[in-house]
Amino acid sequence: MHCEMILDQYRERIPLFERIKDVVINTLKQKLSENNLFVNGLEGRIKTEASLTGKLELKGYKYRTIDDITDIVGVRIITYFCDEVDIISAIVEKTFEIDWENSVDKRKMLEIDRFGYMSLHYICRIPASLYNDPEMPMLNQVRFELQMRSILQHVWANMQHDIGYKSTVEIPVEHQRSLNRLAGILELADEQFSIIRKEINDYRRNVQSMVASGNFDEVPLNGDTFRSYCNLKPFKHLAYKITTINQAEMYEDSLMPYYNVLVHMGMKTIGDIERMRIESSDSAYQLALLQLAGTGLDIVAYSVTLQNLCIVHILKMGFGEAGLTRMFASLYGENDYNAQRASRIFKQAQKINII
Fold first, then answer.
1. Do 313 and 224 share a domain, yes or no?
2. 6, 118, 185, 294: which is deepest, by most CB within 10 A?
């Protein structure tokens, strides 16, 4: 009779549980977006009647009413990295009311020589200051469970649940030992992914600082440093001059396709690109005059600046039409038109004595 009463309460509150789940998920989506956090998964569920019945059969003596069951509504956030769990938990603590007495940090429950399921479980309520509905006064009183764990912790939890909890046969010690070793590997991988990401982010911040300092000869050329250099808009003065040829507008396209071109040209540092910019800007502008004069083009791509600088540099280095053809192949892929384009530009360059 006692369990049946709880099941009756459960059936009556299904609409309330659904509303709580929707409010929690929508709130978390908003908070994650506001903090520029991207997660692998955000999901919610209402415990099924069959699942609740099974829980009551096992532990019904623990619950007086359905209010004592804190996981009827469950929401889970799956992060990419384990250190993001703490970041998101801080946001959750500011957003919802936390029932600390019933919340569990399973990451801190394992013995020092044991591995296994790690997850952060908060038991929460929706504060009235966040959301309330006069037609559902219980909405701010009913507790829900919020789980936070990394994607590797999630993988292990599912594996452990399927292999361990659902089995009616006790797992032999040798298999349990193998599972524990696997859990240790996953835990180590989880930590290392976070460490590597932090080191990469630190490196990128350092690269941005180095580029911003203007000591370009000390900055090696790679994808990150080239992107940071491009963000400084180093070719904006040349771009402005080129647009005035036809009083055109500038289309801001990406310069990243030129990274491989610059590497193939032998550029080693950002300083090499900067010297090319300084030494070849006048010739690059003269080349643009030949290319655009009389065309009537009213939109010019920003990348024309770097393309013309590369053209001038290639020709000054004596690589001729073959060098231009290779550049166009790098930019546009192998095709018959690359050689024709190179030949036309080579003739234009002869007119302004670049060669």
1. yes
2. 118
